[in-house]
Amino acid sequence: SAGQPPLFSFRGLFPLILMLFGLWMSYMLIMGRNLLGTQKHKARQLRIREQQFRSLFSQSPDAVFAFDKGGYYQTLNSVAQKIVGLSDSDVGITHYDTVLKAGVINEFDRANFETAFNNATVGHSQSCEVCFTSPNGSEPRDYDCDFLPIVVDEDVTGVYVIAKDITERRQAEENQRILKKSLESSDNGIVVVDTRLKDFPVVFVNPAFCQMTGYADREIVGEPVKLLSGPETDEEDIELIKKASREGRPLSLTLKSYRRDGAPFWNQVSLSPVQDERGQVTHYTAIMRDISDKKEQEKRLAYQATHDVLTGLGNRALFEDHLVHDFSLAKRSGQSMAVLFIDLDEFKPINDTLGHKLGDELLISVTLRLKKTVRPTDTLARFGGDEFVLLLPELGSVHEAEDVAERILEELGKPHLIKGHELYISASIGISILTDDLEHPEKLLQQADMAMYKAKQQGRDTYEIFSQDLDNKLSKRVILRNDLQEAIKSNQLFLHYQPQVNQNGELCGLEALVRWKHPEKGLISPADFIPIAEETGQIVQLGKWVTTQACRDAQTLLDMGLLKGRMAVNLSPMQFHRPSFLNTVRGILE
To answer: Can you state the angle between helices 356-372 and 347-354, rounded to 10 degrees?
Structure first.
């Protein structure tokens, strides 16, 4: 009403409004400042992420390409530029098909590339491998390509292609494949062990190893390689392998190994260390070859080289080796030893009459008899033909050698029943005994040989002990034998002719008698050299010379009219045993 103050006054509210407006403006300023700071922070974060992406893009060791959906290059890093030969000026105007045509790529890889790209443009990530030769003409390279869709606002706007150069990896894989196939197809057993682990476990074996040892690969891989050793494996060989492994050096050796079933075999092993990039030995490769057959053949050859094939006895080489050993041992220990030279009597007529097969059977029978008389420490050998030699070490006296000789003569004298034949044979035995003055072991064999010839002269089926007197006599005979051979060659021989008369005292022929005039010793009696010629077989050559010379002289006498009747020539029974006797005489007469 009039005269009263109004209930509401704008003037009273104005200060409040001004205060509220100030507060609102302050709030808006603060909020604006905060919003501006937030925007700046987000912009900063966006720039950082963009730089990070750019670094990933530019610093990547792999080639990175960005394409639009049409296949045109939008951006590519430096690695990608080198591959395709493009620069920034080509971006946006060059299609990937143009680059593929400029380089070299086969149709199969090109089709795979296009298929993968098209699948990526519809949102499906893809991968494929291609071999591509850059337009600059460099060597072809293998690439593992990942095709990734570029998605913006849930829409595919392009395709990223990340290409990793896998040429070296591919080559390494190919080399590894070739190596593995080569190892698997090798005829030699191959096993690889890891030397960094205890007991050297096996990490690889090839089929040839499994076939050689009988182990399946699943049984051997992871197991220690020492399972191939056994009771007869030489410990020195094992130590050699361990030492080579510790020193990281190769080794070749032959050792006895064992198959899965326990059967031993001779294993020729070549060990080669495998080093890593730092030069540290990490593995060992063992190339194995089963040489059991070769070893067996070597064993047979060694046996044949030292043993007589027919009787199985040692031969001259083995005997002489044992002789040297036992001789040296006897000299050091002061013990005695003996050598017996055994020559069968009248073996040749049996061999010639009944045949060589029966003769061989007789030699085998003789061998069995001789083995009955020897000790395990003795050495019995056959020198060939019908000659046997026995080495008796560790003798207490000469009588022991004589006892052995008597047992031999007794055993050999018993009948030999061979293929229905009852054969009798004897032997002549020469014995030589080790003396203090003897320096060379072969001298024992020579002395036994000389004593055997003396036993022959004594009527055979006996033994004779060597003596120095015998040595002197036999030495003269040996010299005379050698001189006789020279006499036949150098015309030291000549003929005397003794007249033959009939009952009426008339000349009816001549008898040729051989004479020998030695250039130093003068005339040598036929009673001395004829027996030697008979024993040595020189009588055959001597008789041929006498017959030839007598025929020549007979022709000369005929031409002179002085030969009346026959020309007689004395021949040895040994000449009649020769199959060529008649042909030889006929040839001389002609």
So the answer is: 140
